[in-house]
TrEMBL record, chain A:
InterPro entries: CcO_II, CcO_II-like_C, Copper_CuA, Cupredoxin, Cyt_c-like_dom, Cyt_c-like_dom_sf, Cyt_c_oxidase_su2. Residues 104-218 form the Cytochrome oxidase subunit II copper A binding domain. It comes from Salipiger aestuarii. Subunits I and II form the functional core of the enzyme complex. Electrons originating in cytochrome c are transferred via heme a and Cu(A) to the binuclear center formed by heme a3 and Cu(B). This is Cytochrome aa3 subunit 2. Residues 226-318 form the Cytochrome c domain. The lineage of its organism: Bacteria, Pseudomonadati, Pseudomonadota, Alphaproteobacteria, Rhodobacterales. NCBIfam families: CoxB.
TrEMBL record, chain B:
Residues 38-558 form the Cytochrome oxidase subunit I profile domain. It comes from Salipiger aestuarii. Its EC number is 7.1.1.9. This is cytochrome-c oxidase. Pathway: Energy metabolism; oxidative phosphorylation. SUPFAM superfamilies: Cytochrome c oxidase subunit I-like, Cytochrome c oxidase subunit III-like. GO terms for cellular component: plasma membrane.
C-alpha cells in the first residue's frame, strides 16, 4: 500500500533515530537523560542485589540461627533502604520538573491537534502566522508551546528535544522545549486519537536564530499566486478553498491545513510523505490509500493536465522570492 | 448464642464405627454430588464453578494472546499493511480489554472460588448460586465482547476508552457501546464474586481459625476482594455517564456543553490503578502460599506481609493520577501523586524481602512451581524498578505512552501475575485433578516462556527510548524501530510456544494415570487434607483449627477429619451445610444451608446478558422483556433457595456442639452480603458525587444561577416522601417482630407508592425549571442523580412486594425474618443516598450562594 520507505529514505538518510530521547537535541531531554542513566545504573545494581540474595538464599545451607538476621534483612532491605532511595529520587524528580516548566519562553507557538494533523500558529510581528505539520524552532531559545484540541485528545511529543504534553478539548496545556542542536527531529502524536493516530507526525526543524527569523518572515508573507495560474483555477473549481486557506487569495477555508506555503514544507500528509509531485498527485486522487480515514475526500476524477497543473501550483507555494 | 469452643473440654469423638462412617459418607455424597450428564451446567458447587471459571479465563487469555501475536506480526516489519489500520486499532483495544477484564481479574476470582473454601476447610462458599450466576454472566459478557471482532465491530477506542474519542458518535461507533455495556455486565459479576469471597473469608472460616491464624492466601483474597469492591464501582459510574452520553446525548464529557473529558480519566484511573494491584496481589498470594510448603517452614514475617498487602491496597487508591501526568495538572498534584507512586515500592519491597528471608532460613526444595516463582521474581523486580522510574514526573513525560511503558507494564503484569499464576497452576494441578503433570514439559515451558518473554519485552524499553509511541499500527524504516520490533515479535512467538507447551501439559488427558499421593508437596494448609481420589463434599468433617499451618502443627488432624470426628460429619437432612463463624475469633454461630444445583441462576444470567446485549443495539422493548425475565428468574431463585425456614431451630453439629439452623440480621451471611454489596453501591454513588464536585471545581457556572436550580420545594417534598417510605419499611420490621403480620405487609406494599411519589417530586423539581440533560453538564448531573435514585427504587419496590408476599406465605414471619432485615438494611443505604442527593441538589447550591 505505502511505498513510503522508498520515497523517504533519501530524505532521511542519516537521520535514523530522529525520535531518540537520548539525542541530546534539547535542554529538557538532556535533563531527563541525566536522570535516566542514574536510574538505569541504580536499577541494575538493585536488581542484581535482590536476585543475588534470592539465589544465595536458595543455595546456602540451612541455618535456623539466622532467624534474627532475617528480620533485619526485611526491615533494611524491604523498608529502610527503599524509603531513603525513593525519597531522594522524588526530590530530584521534582527539582527537574520545576526547572523544565518555566512560566514564559523566548517565543510562543500555539499548536492545535486535529484528526490527524497539526495546526501551528506563531506570534509574528504583524499578528498570527498560521502553518501546519512542520514546526521550526530557533536554536537555544525556549519555545513555550500552548497546546489545544478541538476534537479528541492528542499528545504533542518531540522525543529528541523533550517530554510530551496532552492536547485536551476545553483546556490549554503548555510545554517548554529548548532545542540545542540543529537538525530535523521527529514529532509524534503520543495519545491514541483513533483512526490514523499512527500517521499523525510532524517535522521539528531546529535552525540558527537568524535563519529562523528569515523563515518566519517568509512564512508570514502571503502566497504569490498569478491571477491566471491554471493550477489555481483547478484549485478554485474543485472547491479546495472551502477547506484550505491560501493567504493572499480568496481561499479561506478553515477546516484543513493552511496551504499558503505548503511547497516549502518537507513533507505532506502530516509528516509522513516526502513533498514530491508524485506524492502530491497521489494524495489528491487517492488520499485514503496513503492515510486511511483522513478527513480529506479524494478527487479520483482529477487527472492529466488538470492534476498536473494543480500539483505544480501547490508545490510552487514555497518561500522563493 | 455464640459458642466458645474450648478444645480441652470438647467431648471425645465417638469411637470409630465403619458402618456409621459409610452411611454418613453416602449421605454426604448424595447431598454434594454434582448433577449427572448434560445437567452438569446446573452445578453450583465451587469445585465445578471454580474449574469452569479458570478454564474460561484461560480461554480468554489465549484469545487475547492471539490478538497480541497478530499485533506483533503487524509490527514485525516497517510499512507492513497485513492487517491495516482499522483491524489493528481493534486488535490492541481488545487485547488490553480482554487481558484486563476477562483474564487478569476473573482468574483471581476463579482461583479463589476453586481453592478458598478448601483452604478454609469449608465445603463451599456461602452463596454458591451467586458464584454460578457470576460465572455465567462472565461467560456471556466475555463472548459478546470478544465475538465482536469477528464481525469487524470490536471496540477500537483503546482499553481506556478516553473521551471524547469514545463519547462522540462522530469518532466511535458500535464498538464503544459493546465495550461499555459488555464490560459493565462483567463488572457486575466481578463484584458479585468479590462479595462472595469477602463473606467467605470473614464468615466461613473453620471454628477456631481466628483472624491471626488465617493463611496468607485468605488475607490476600480479603484485601483484593475489598479493593474490587471500591475500585470497580467508580468505573461503573463512569460507564453509566458515558453510555448515557452516547445513547441519549446527555452532556457529561462534551466541552461545548459544560462537560469535561478529564472527568472520564479520573473515574477510569480511580478504577484502573487499583486494578493493577487487584491483579498483582492475588498472584503474590500464590507465592506466599507455596513458598512455605517448599521451604518446609512457616513464612518469616507473616504479619509484615499482611500489613504490607493492606498498605499496598490503601496506597493503590491514591496514585491513579500517575496515569495522567501529561494532562497539564498543577505541579502540587503531580508532586503528591508522584510521591504516592514511589511510596508503593516500599510495602511491595517488604513482601519480596519476606519471601527472600524465608528462603534464607530454610532449605528450599527445587520444584517446578518454585522455578516459575523464581522467574516471576526476576521479571517483577525489573518491572518494579522501571515503575520507580516512570513514577518520576519528568521521566514520565518522556516515557508515557511510549513503548517503554509497554515494556514496563508487561514486566509488572507478566512477572507479577502470569508467572506466579503458572506456578500456582503447577502447584495446585495435583490438588484439582489428583494427577501429576509432566515436570519435564513444564520446565521446557518455563524456559521458553522466560526466554521468549525477555526477548520480546526487554528490547521494548529501548524501542520506547527510540521514541516509538504506543498504539501505532505502522512505522517507517527511517524511524529506526524495525530491528527492535522484529526481535520483539520473535520473542512473542517463543513466549507463546512456551505457554502452549504448558497448556498442553495441563489439558493432556490423564484418565489412566495413577493418582498422586495425598498432600504430595507436604504442605501445611488445609486444602491438601482432601482425600485422593477426591470426594464431592470437600472435607469429610470440619475441624477445629488453632494453628496457621494445621497439617504441620496439628498432628493426627487428617485422620480425625477422615473418620468424621469433627463438625458436620453428616448430611442427615440431605442438605448442603456449612458452619458460619464470627468474624474475629471464628466461634461457630450457626449452620448455613446453601443451595444445590439449579437452572435458575443460568436463566437469570442469560436474561440479564440479553438485556445488556439488546441495549447495545438500542432494542429497548426486547431488552425490557428480557429484563422482566431476569426479575422473574431471580425472584424464583430467591423464593425457592434462600432464607428457608428450617425443619427445627437447632441441630447437632457433632462433638457436643448444637448450632442454630437459621440466622438473621448481622449474624447471617446474607445480611453481610447486602451490607458489602451496598458499600460497593455507595462507592459507585460516590463516583457520581465526585463527578458533581469535579464539575464544580472545573466550571465557573456550576451550579448555575438560582433560576436554573431544581425547585427547592419539590426536592424537599420528594426527600420527605422517600424518608417516609424508608421509615415505613423500618416500622414494618419492628411490627413483624411483634407479630403484626398484616400491618407489616401493608406498610411494605404501601411504601412503594410513597417512594415513587418522592421520586416524582424530584423529577418534577428538575422538570419544572426546564432542566434538560442534553443541554449542560449541570442539568445532566441533576437528572443522573435522580435517575440513580430511580434505578435503586425499582429493585427496592420489587423486593418490598416480594417480602410482603413472603410474609403472606408465612416464609417470612415474626421468628424467621431474615428477608425483611436484609431489605431494611438496603433501605438504610437508600435513605442515606437520598439525603446525600438532596444535599447536593438543594443544600450545596444554597451554600455556594447561587440563590
Amino acid at each position: 500500500m505505502r511505498n513510503l520507505t522508498l520515497l523517504t529514505v533519501p530524505l532521511l538518510a542519516g537521520c535514523a533515530g530522529r525520535h531518540n530521547w537520548l539525542s541530546s537535541a534539547g535542554a529538557e531531554a538532556d535533563r531527563v537523560e541525566g536522570l535516566f542513566w542514574v536510574l538505569l545504573i541504580g536499577a541494575a545494581v538493585i536488581w542484581s542485589a535482590v536476585i543475588g540474595a534470592a539465589v544465595y538464599a536458595q543455595r546456602r545451607q540451612v541455618d535456623p540461627g539466622l532467624e534474627h538476621q532475617a528480620r533485619w534483612f526485611i526491615v533494611w532491605g524491604g523498608a529502610v533502604i527503599p524509603t531513603v532511595l525513593v525519597c531522594a529520587l522524588l526530590i530530584w524528580g521534582l527539582v527537574i520538573l520545576r526547572d523544565i516548566t518555566p512560566d514564559k519562553g523566548d517565543l510562543t507557538v500555539r499548536v492545535d491537534g486535529e484528526r490527524w494533523w497539526w495546526r501551528v500558529t506563531y506570534d509574528g510581528p504583524d499578528g498570527d502566522v498560521v502553518t501546519a505539520n512542520e514546526i521550526r524552532l530557533p536554536l537555544d531559545q525556549t519555545a513555550l508551546f500552548r497546546l489545544t484540541s478541538d476534537d479528541v485528545i492528542h499528545s504533542f511529543w518531540v522525543p529528541a528535544i523533550g517530554g510530551k504534553m496532552d492536547m485536551i478539548p476545553g483546556r490549554e496545556t503548555t510545554l517548554a522545549l529548548t532545542p540545542n542542536k540543529t537538525g530535523n527531529w521527529g514529532g509524534l502524536c503520543a495519545e491514541y486519537c483513533g483512526g490514523a493516530h499512527a500517521l499523525m507526525r510532524f517535522d521539528t526543524v531546529v535552525m540558527e536564530p537568524d535563519a529562523f527569523d528569515a523563515w518566519l518572515a517568509a512564512e508570514a508573507a502571503p502566497a504569490r499566486v498569478a491571477p491566471d495560474d491554471p493550477g489555481f483555477a483547478v484549485f478554485r473549481d474543485e472547491g479546495c478553498g472551502a477547506c484550505h486557506t491560501i493567504r493572499g487569495t480568496d481561499a479561506r477555508g478553515p477546516v484543513g491545513p493552511d496551504l499558503t506555503h505548503v511547497g516549502a514544507r518537507a513533507r505532506l500528509g502530516a509528516g509522513i510523505y516526502a513533498m514530491t509531485a508524485d506524492n502530491m498527485a497521489r494524495w489528491i486522487t487517492d488520499t485514503h490509500a496513503m492515510k486511511p480515514d483522513a478527513d480529506m475526500p479524494p478527487y479520483p476524477d482529477l487527472s492529466g493536465a488538470r492534476l498536473e497543473a494543480l500539483v505544480t501550483f501547490l508545490l510552487s507555494l514555497d518561500h522563493a522570492e | 448464642m455464640t459458642q466458645e469452643i474450648d478444645l480441652s473440654k470438647l467431648p471425645p469423638p465417638a469411637p470409630y464405627d465403619e458402618a456409621r462412617d459409610k452411611a454418613q459418607r453416602s449421605r454426604l455424597a448424595k447431598a454434594w454430588q454434582g448433577p449427572p450428564g448434560w445437567k452438569i451446567v446446573s452445578a453450583v458447587n465451587n469445585s465445578f464453578i471454580g474449574k469452569w471459571y479458570l478454564l474460561t479465563s484461560f480461554a480468554f487469555f489465549v484469545f487475547a494472546g492471539i490478538l497480541a501475536l497478530m499485533i506483533r506480526v503487524q509490527l514485525a516489519a516497517p510499512n507492513n499493511d497485513l492487517f491495516g489500520q482499522q483491524l489493528y486499532n481493534q486488535l490492541f483495544t481488545l487485547h488490553g480489554t480482554a487481558m484486563m477484564f476477562l483474564f487478569a481479574v476473573p482468574i483471581f476470582e476463579a482461583v479463589a472460588i476453586l481453592v478458598l473454601p478448601e483452604i478454609l476447610g469449608a465445603r463451599d462458599l456461602p452463596f454458591p448460586r451467586l458464584s454460578a450466576f457470576g460465572y455465567w454472566c462472565f461467560l456471556i459478557g466475555g463472548v459478546f465482547v470478544c465475538g465482536s471482532i469477528l464481525f469487524g465491530v470490536a471496540p477500537d477506542g483503546g482499553w481506556f476508552m478516553y473521551t471524547p474519542l469514545s463519547s462522540n458518535e462522530e469518532y466511535s461507533g458500535l464498538g464503544a457501546d459493546i465495550w461499555l455495556l459488555g464490560l459493565s455486565f462483567i463488572e457486575v459479576s466481578s463484584i458479585a464474586a468479590a462479595v462472595e469471597l469477602i463473606v467467605g473469608v470473614l464468615k466461613c472460616r473453620p471454628p477456631g481459625m481466628r483472624l491471626n491464624l488465617m493463611p496468607l492466601y485468605c488475607w490476600y483474597v480479603l484485601v483484593v476482594a475489598g479493593m474490587i469492591l471500591f475500585a470497580f464501582p467508580p468505573l461503573i459510574a463512569g460507564d453509566l455517564l458515558l453510555e448515557m452520553e452516547r445513547a441519549f446525548g446527555w452532556a457529561f464529557f462534551d466541552v461545548d456543553r459544560g462537560g469535561d473529558p478529564l472527568l472520564w480519566q479520573h473515574l477510569f484511573w480511580i478504577f484502573g490503578h487499583p486494578e493493577v494491584y487487584i491483579i498483582f496481589l492475588p498472584s503474590i498470594a500464590l507465592i506466599a502460599t507455596m513458598l512455605p510448603t517448599f521451604a518446609g517452614r512457616p513464612m518469616v514475617g507473616h504479619s509484615w506481609i499482611v500489613l504490607s498487602a493492606i498498605g499496598v491496597a490503601f496506597l493503590s487508591f491514591g496514585l491513579w493520577v500517575h496515569h495522567m501526568f501529561t494532562t497539564g495538572l498543577p505541579e502540587i498534584s503531580l508532586g503528591f501523586f508522584s510521591a504516592a507512586s514511589e511510596a508503593v515500592a516500599v510495602p511491595t519491597g517488604i513482601q519480596i524481602f519476606c519471601f527472600i528471608a524465608t528462603m534464607l532460613v530454610s532449605k528450599v526444595r527445587p520444584s517446578v512451581p518454585m522455578l516459575f516463582a523464581g522467574g516471576a521474581l526476576a521479571i517483577f523486580v525489573f518491572g518494579g524498578l522501571t515503575g520507580v522510574m516512570v513514577a518520576l514526573v519528568p521521566f514520565d513525560w518522556q516515557a508515557h505512552d511510549s513503548y517503554f511503558v509497554v515494556a514496563h507494564l508487561h514486566y509488572t503484569l507478566i512477572g507479577g501475575m502470569l508467572f506466579p499464576l503458572m506456578a500456582g497452576v503447577c502447584y495446585w494441578y495435583p490438588f484439582v485433578t489428583q494427577k501429576a503433570m509432566n515436570a519435564r514439559a513444564s520446565r521446557w515451558a518455563f524456559w521458553l516462556m522466560f526466554g521468549g518473554f525477555n526477548l520480546a519485552f526487554l528490547p521494548m524499553h529501548w524501542t520506547g527510548i527510540m521514541g516509538m509511541p504506543r498504539r501505532v499500527w505502522t512505522y517507517d524504516l527511517t524511524d529506526g524501530w524495525a530491528v527492535l520490533n522484529m526481535v520483539s515479535t520473535v520473542g512473542a512467538f517463543v513466549f507463546a510456544t512456551g505457554f502452549a507447551v504448558l497448556a498442553i501439559n495441563v489439558l493432556w488427558p490423564r484418565g489412566k494415570a495413577p493418582f498422586v499421593a495425598r498432600n504430595l508437596w507436604n504442605a501445611g494448609t488445609m486444602e491438601w487434607a482432601a482425600e485422593v481420589p477426591g470426594k464431592p463434599w470437600g472435607v469429610r468433617s470440619i475441624p477445629y483449627i488453632h494453628t496457621r499451618y494445621p497439617l504441620w502443627e496439628q498432628p493426627g488432624l487428617v485422620d480425625g477429619i477422615d473418620r468424621g470426628e469433627w463438625f458436620l460429619p453428616d448430611a442427615a437432612e440431605g442438605k448442603r451445610e456449612l458452619i458460619v463463624t464470627d468474624i474475629l475469633d471464628a466461634r461457630p454461630l450457626h449452620v448455613q444451608r446453601v443451595g444445590g444445583p439449579t437452572f435458575l441462576t443460568l436463566g437469570s444470567a442469560f436474561c440479564l446478558g440479553a438485556v445488556f446485549i439488546l441495549a447495545t443495539y438500542h432494542l429497548w422493548a426486547l431488552a425490557l422483556a428480557f429484563g422482566a425475565g431476569f426479575v422473574g428468574f431471580t425472584l424464583w431463585w430467591l423464593w425457592t433457595g434462600t432464607s428457608e425456614i428450617p425443619e427445627r431451630p437447632h441441630k447437632d453439629a457433632g462433638r457436643g456442639l448444637t448450632l442454630p439452623t437459621y440466622a438473621q440480621g448481622n449474624r447471617s451471611p446474607g445480611w453481610w452480603a447486602v451490607f458489602i454489596t451496598m458499600t460497593g453501591d455507595m462507592t459507585a454513588f460516590m463516583g457520581l458525587v465526585f463527578s458533581y464536585f469535579f464539575y464544580w471545581t472545573a466550571l465557573p457556572d456550576f451550579p448555575p444561577a438560582a433560576s436554573q436550580l431544581p425547585a427547592f420545594g419539590g426536592l424537599l417534598a420528594g426527600l420527605a416522601a422517600l424518608i417516609a417510605a424508608w421509615l415505613m419499611t423500618v416500622a414494618a420490621r419492628s411490627l413483624l417482630g411483634q407479630g403484626a403480620r398484616r400491618a407489616a405487609m401493608a406498610l411494605l406494599v404501601g411504601s412503594v407508592p410513597v417512594a415513587a411519589a418522592g421520586l416524582g417530586g424530584w423529577a418534577w423539581a428538575a422538570w419544572a425549571v426546564g432542566l434538560d440533560p442534553t443541554s449542560h453538564s449541570f442539568d445532566a448531573m441533576v437528572w443522573m442523580l435522580i435517575l440513580w435514585m430511580g434505578l435503586h427504587l425499582i429493585p427496592n419496590a420489587i423486593m418490598q412486594i416480594y417480602v410482603a408476599a413472603r410474609i403472606w406465605a408465612d416464609i417470612c414471619n415474626p421468628e424467621y425474618r431474615a428477608d425483611l432485615m436484609n431489605l431494611t438494611l438496603f433501605g438504610h443505604f437508600l435513605a442515606l443516598t437520598a439525603i446525600v442527593i438532596f444535599a447536593l441538589l438543594a443544600v450545596f447550591p444554597l451554600m455556594m450562594g447561587a440563590a
